[in-house]
Amino acid sequence: MAHRSIRHFTAEKLTPTEIATLITAAQHAATSTFSQQVSIISVTDPAKLAILGDITGHHWLEKAGHYFLFIADQARNAQLAGDSATAQANLHSTDKLLAGIFDATIAIEAVVTAGESLGLGSTIMGSVLNDVPRLIQTFDLPRLTFPVLGLAIGHPAEQPEQKPRLPQELMHFTNTYRPLDPADPQLVAYDRTITSYYQQRGSHQREETYTHHILTEFSRDPQQRAGITAALKQQGFLTDVPTE
Ligand SMILES: Cc1cc2nc3c(=O)[nH]c(=O)nc-3n(C[C@H](O)[C@H](O)[C@H](O)COP(=O)(O)O)c2cc1C
């Protein structure tokens, strides 16, 4: 509950013991059908970190204490499953693609939380998907693997304000879904809370409600990451989705 993303780190690198502890946390995360469909790449090569900086636009990641790339991985299971036709068909399915994404996502949050318990800070990066073909090539990702998220982690050199979240009444329901009423006083109050958060925070101050933030976020060009579907197919996924 003390979480905030950390984007400035001290020069101190993570020790091998710290890295092993974080990986242990990832390994013990729940995993769909006990199939352990996640692999993690530690990125230490400065040239590869620079490529990640280019892809994400976050060159500060090169100064993090460590960098992990989380991969949805059915390639390992494909090797274990041998040539059973049913198993191979399953491995290529959207269901198993999602399972890999679930496992990778749950594992990354386990690392984030374990890191915070050790006094480390981190930022999850979906922006690794800005150039999936380059990412796949840089890390030699085989078919039936797909990059999901990156994680810059290290010793915090900042303590940013926590970003206030939506009131629970707007996101936690009982027994049935409750659609949002845009005039809900709780939303109006939350918009005000976010406006003052952006006005008062230590860096990148701006004037913005949450509602406006969402409009801006979802007004980005949908073509920006248009390569994702093609890359998924190239990696052997979405084979059960008809091509247009
Ligand atoms: C799936 C996912 C992808 C994210 N991608 C990025 C990213 O590419 N760059 C970045 O700076 N932050 C990224 N974040 C961090 C979010 O911006 C951050 O969690 C959000 O603004 C809330 O702030 P907080 O984590 O400090 O509470 C990502 C978070 C998630 C969960």
UniProtKB/TrEMBL annotation:
PANTHER family on file: OXYGEN-INSENSITIVE NADPH NITROREDUCTASE (PTHR43425)
Full protein name: Nitroreductase
GO MF terms held by the record: oxidoreductase activity
Domain Nitroreductase: 2-155
Keywords: Flavoprotein, FMN, NADP, Oxidoreductase
Residues making up the signal peptide according to the UniProt record: none
InterPro entries: Flavin_OxRdtase_Frp (IPR016446), Nitroreductase (IPR029479), Nitroreductase-like (IPR000415)
Organism: Levilactobacillus paucivorans
Family membership noted in the UniProt record: Belongs to the flavin oxidoreductase frp family.
NADP among keywords: yes
